[in-house]
Write the structure tokens for this entry.
Amino acid sequence: MNVRADWEVVIGLETHAQLATASKIFSGSSTRFGAPPNAQACAVDLALPGVLPVLNAGAVECAVRFGLAVGATIAPRSVFARKNYFYPDLPKGYQISQYEIPVVQGGSLAIAVDGVEKVVRLTRAHLEEDAGKSLHEDYHGMSGIDLNRAGTPLLEIVTEPDMRSAAEAVAYARALHALVVWLGICDGNMQEGSFRCDANVSVRPRGQAAYGTRCEIKNLNSFRFLERAILHEVDRQIALIEDGGRVVQETRLYDPERDHTRSMRSKEDAMDYRYFPDPDLLPLEISAETVERIRASLPELPAAMRARFTAQYGLPAYDAATLTASRSLARYFEAALTAFGGDPKLVSNWMMGELLSRLNETERDAEAAAVTPDMLAGLLKRIADGTLSGKLAKEVFAILWDEGGSADAIIAARGLAQISDTGALEAIVDEVLAANPKSVEEFRAGKEKAMNALVGQAMKASRGKANPAQVNAILRRKLSG
Amino acid sequence: MSLSIDDVTRIAHLARISITAEEAHATLAQLNDIFGMIERLARVDTEGIEPMSHPLGGAQRLREDRVTEADAREENMKNAPAREDGLFLVPRVIE
């Protein structure tokens, strides 16, 4: 029922990424998550009289890193502004943000949906401070205020209305999430609110040039909620227009429990924030030298690394994309490949198979993998030289993960090496032939399937350690003789 | 341009200032005087002059990213009229 053929969906996203600084954007309080309430709120965060904000160089550096990574212009001069509104978790009565001149201007991010590449243009990214938290339950009709989060640095990243489906919006959000984590400017923890999206959604009849009236959906702190909320909002807007109504510009809240969006406030009673330049802060100037110093410190970016993995290692595009999903995974690949020194595709296969499934199971990052790149390389060497069959290698991998050690030590201790010794294999095959006269007869009568049964028996007799290719060859030779 | 009495009550509401009708009229006159002054300023030819965002010259000094503030919750909460579980308590507000 979603996205009917005669309607086009238009989506723009605003994302708040919490910057991974040690201290707050305008004070020396810690930004660590999970501290006891108000233990990380100093006089500046509490807006006590007479305090002044002092801008954190670390937050500025994060913004510049991001701007450079998306090919944006780093404003040589940008201005902080006050966004005025009243809410108890905003003690100053205004949020310090950037309005007319943001620090990062323009830029773009490439996404791919079902193998089709697309470029999403960015409008801007600006620095601002987060508000505190209000707890509305359990305080006998009052609200509890925790200001630990007040003043945490945020980068608000705004796109042009370039996305045309919920799938594209999710692809963009994922690519952006991967990039900010890759750059080390955001921990990306969505449960803790480190990365949150608002979506501007509108629909228009296909072929119409003017945009439809948009609604902004807030409170989207998972990729799944982002997708669900957009799909529902699109349905709501199309149904409304087809029933002769019209979309009213408003802010809507996504309710994950009921899986729908509901109106928060319309444009008429929308807040008038009365932005003006903050007299407490001078303009932020960033010199060309600073920009170049930060540019030189940037890591190789995911898109460049993806291209290099296909060109340099001959990996399929899918493998290259999977292995560059995170910086730690990409590092793991290159470390394992260097230690192994063999076929890159073998490394890739084992990482995308056994390693990723174990990492997902244990919810670990590649950096914390129980099987290190060196340990995996040791295992791959024994696969490449024929000591281990694929099946045995999986067993060894499981032991490596659970108990540690090295592949060689495990093979020796458990007698897991594949039997490739011709004499030993011939003895096994002879036994199997003697014990299975019926299969032998069937094969000689032209039943190719009987061969599989015989190979299976030989593998069983060797407890999985026989080299299957060799067993096959010996069987054929003996049966045709 | 001059303000209407509705503008004044709206601005007062946005600033959460409660004013009587009488005060609104007095404020309207004062605000319109200020706007008159701004209009005179707006007539000055500023062609080719870069707008200032701050009356002082210079650029913002930056602070090193370091935690310098220790937990001072007890001290900070001394003046709070109501508190519980380390939280400031305020009249319930739900947006």
In short: The mean pLDDT of chain A is 92. Chain A has 16 helices and 18 strands. Chain A has three domains: 7-293, 300-414, 422-480. The CA atoms of residues 460 and 466 of chain A lie 9 Å apart.
